[in-house]
Structure prediction request, 172 residues.
Amino acid sequence: MSDEQLLDVFKSFCAFGAGSKDSQPLMDNAKFGKLFRDLKLYDKKFTSTDTDIIFNRPEVKSKTERKIGIAGFKKALELCAEKKYGSKGDVQKLIDKICAGKGPVAVGATKQSKTGGVDRMTDTSMYTGSHKERFDESGKGKGLEGRKDHDANASEGYVGGYKGKDTYDKTH
Prediction:
């Protein structure tokens, strides 16, 4: 695989989550780990702890820097290949796997619902009380007729089930 493909993968992971693309891409430790996680390069022998340690080695970046450029990235890949495969000469095998993979993946992002919310809201079998009277059997709304209270006592100010209508003594 060419250096150009590796640079494209490097730039895509550098730009992931950033507001705008910088003129010179730089990668931080979190995005370096994300690259290995998204491309499924971790195993029992090579873990995320190893990438954290390699990223902070003095050969990759100085103590004052927080991010690495493409040169530090290539050096880090050499060290990762040595840890994963046992030899720095196997760096091309690691680069081939990185270039063959996809770009960064948004894990845990909210997915769009396949069903419309309207179906759920107009399903009268889920409604209880007076709300189920608002829709007919087909789910079509009844409009004002569905919202009217048809209780005879309600228009006179009495609660349904009240037995003492017109028994109050008006002299009090």
Notes: The two ends are 99 Å apart (CA to CA). Helices lie at 3-15, 29-38, 48-55, 70-85, 91-100, 117-121, 144-147, 152-156.
